[in-house]
Amino acid sequence: MPDDLIRRLLHGERVPLARAISAVENEAPDAVAILNACYEKSGRAFRLGVTGPPGAGKSTLVARLAQEYRRRGETVAVVAVDPTSPFTGGALLGDRVRMSDLAGDPGVFIRSMATRGSQGGLAVHTAQACDVLDAAGFSRVLIETVGVGQSELEVAQTADSTCVVLVPESGDGVQAMKAGLMEIGDLFVINKSDREGAERAAFAVRSALELRPPSPDGWTPPVLLTVAPEGKGVSEVVERFEAHFEQLKSHGSLAGRRRRSVEQRMRDLLRAQLWDVFMERVPVRVWEDSVQTLVEHRLSPHEAAERLRRLVGAP
Amino acid sequence: MPDDLIRRLLHGERVPLARAISAVENEAPDAVAILNACYEKSGRAFRLGVTGPPGAGKSTLVARLAQEYRRRGETVAVVAVDPTSPFTGGALLGDRVRMSDLAGDPGVFIRSMATRGSQGGLAVHTAQACDVLDAAGFSRVLIETVGVGQSELEVAQTADSTCVVLVPESGDGVQAMKAGLMEIGDLFVINKSDREGAERAAFAVRSALELRPPSPDGWTPPVLLTVAPEGKGVSEVVERFEAHFEQLKSHGSLAGRRRRSVEQRMRDLLRAQLWDVFMERVPVRVWEDSVQTLVEHRLSPHEAAERLRRLVGAP
């Protein structure tokens, strides 16, 4: 069953592809076999992160970028890990982006990832889903993630290149910049730039970028203006993404980025495995007793943790 | 040295208190002894979380809440774990909140927590800092955190009661509500309510709250309007916080919340310890070799992780 599924997804069939990603997301028994097979075949796709604060219009921009890439003959997978994204079903008031232009295109695959789960699980699952899509032959994988909070920044760091999307209002408080976004962007976009203050916001971003140490590969992050619903500026974003990809390859820094990313993945995986093995050895009653000593302040968390490790003979 | 420091901080001395929290934050050798002593004495303070999207005015509200609590005779500690907070030095363009009214008051202690660190480290360190402040005798501990992203929500969950701060504009996209904030709020505040749309935003929040399952302790989250710089509505926020605290105590749900919180802390601590013990057994060269097999796609992350665990004899 996994062998057949793997063979078919590697040929780009959509139903096995969707099933494989679900298996990965649910940590199903087949997932490891699927991932091992896909990892071997992956590494060809360009992985692009699109991140920014809620309300910046990331989903619409991602949809437009996908269309533009299709126009240029690329095949495109979209992975939405943004809890505020309409792709993930997060839209509460029906502001669902019209994706009808993309939905019927066999060269496009859209997938949302659940944002609940174990610590680090989201970044792990996203990277794994990207491996599967990469192995299935998509040449560009777009990862949409909301860019506030540690776990989301981790997701962004699984991408080869990251675009930070802001709005004209972001320039005022430069709030987004404080949240670590300035450090991770390879491209910056002021979306909704038909609103007042777009040029001022771009100026604020450029000024803030001057405080960043120069990139070792000589890349200067461009600051672009877009109006995503009209497609304005979208082609330039694609051009700059591609220029960055070329520069990463020619300067050898793509290898370094991917090395760090995959090292982090192994670390996350090992952490999760060590925990699972430990918990299998702790009887429920022993765990509950330990919690009770904490509740009664008889033992501190450090003391209770040490006692537990001793009880089950963990190192 | 830690004995003397512990004795002095338990008497509420400020310099030992600041040193103790730094030791906790840096995981210094003394930290465990300090934490064990403080945990035993903690559990008396009411821990209040203040969370919300960047730009909602959380820091100013926290400063005003601290003042209001002082007026009511409480002693107040503020723990800022919001990377966008002026308390944490995150302000880029000098929009630092004036804290001069608080700074000279011996009944107030303000502390920022670094947001960098290991996975889960932020929530662990924040809870530990709260224990220290609690043991030092502060009756109210205010935790300011930016409410987007998994790790920040974890921080909020270490509080007894959580106030979600929004702005009138939040009502439009109800963006904040999609990010999980609607689920964790015990109080909701529409700050900057002198701006247009405050009532509409409050209505949107109330509507969204109706979708939430009723609280087992019969608490209905109030939605309040504030203008923090002028102190408008701040007194009512304090009243509602206190009413929630009373309700939590009288319905016994405070014990349940604290139980879940401390259980999560032991879990985080154990995870971190298991990882540290594992990594001590992995020679650097062996780790580097494993990363290299990943980079060359000779082994998948799962295969490389399993090989590593076998090599060092980990379960």
TrEMBL record, chains A, B:
Entry-linked Gene3D superfamilies: P-loop containing nucleotide triphosphate hydrolases (3.40.50.300)
AAA+ ATPase domain boundaries: 44-215
Keywords recorded for this protein, A-Z: Chaperone, GTP-binding, Hydrolase, Nucleotide-binding
Entry-linked InterPro entries: AAA+_ATPase, GTPase/Isobutyryl-CoA_mutase, GTPase_ArgK, P-loop_NTPase
Keyword NAD in record: no
Any single Pfam family the record assigns to this protein: MeaB
One Gene Ontology molecular-function label: GTPase activity
UniProt cross-references to SMART domains, sorted A to Z: AAA
Keyword GTP-binding: yes
Family statement drawn from the similarity comment of this UniProt entry: Belongs to the SIMIBI class G3E GTPase family. ArgK/MeaB subfamily.
Protein name: Methylmalonyl Co-A mutase-associated GTPase MeaB
Provenance organism: Eiseniibacteriota bacterium
Source taxonomy: Bacteria, Candidatus Eiseniibacteriota
